[in-house]
Fold this protein.
Amino acid sequence: EYEIKKNNLIEHINEEYSLKIERKKFDDNESFDFETHKAEVHDLRQKIRNLGPINLLAYSEFEEERERLEFLSKQRDDLVASEKDIVKTIEEINQTAQIKFAETFNQIKENFIRVFRSLFDPGDEADLRLEEGADPLEGKIEIIAKPKGKRPTSIELLSGGEKTLTAIALLFAIYLVKPSPFCILDEIDAPLDDANIDRFTRLIKEFSLNTQFIVVTHNKRTMEAAETLYGVTMQEEGVSKLVSVR
């Protein structure tokens, strides 16, 4: 009976753990506490039973999850690195933009003062100011325009003609930074009186040395200053006709 039990145990261990056991004599056979270790084995078996059924696929699932984690971690690292690169690029762009903006703003400011004084009087006050303490790319720009004899606290207090001339001065100040061979102005002189029309046409003639201006207008004095007129007329109802005059 003992031999059968022994053989059964050997086969069981071999099948379960792939181990071949051999008979061996230990030096501490007489002093070894079998009862204590038997209780320990019993306790461990009870703990294993308490764990419940074993998921044999746990290891393969763990490997899949580990690969997924490594993939996501790599993706995250790439995103973090990309974010740093983007932030650095934005900072470089902002720095370059601020430098370019400052250069362009100063050019426009100088042009505005010069054009404004040519439209009004040489002693008139004009200026462009950036909002103090604000990001130049985001801050407000204040337009200062004070014709001789007037000290308005705001550009809104100027007359309609003065506002238009100030806007024209700013328009040409910006235009002078990057002039083009052609410029189209549509009804820009509509709010101007005769005296201001003469100032406007004088400015156009000055700039027409390098730029060809096409002006859409209904003002007779502006038409008089033009070198070529293209009039749209309607001799027959519903049929437009173009007439050119030099």
About this structure: DSSP finds six helices and six strands in the chain.
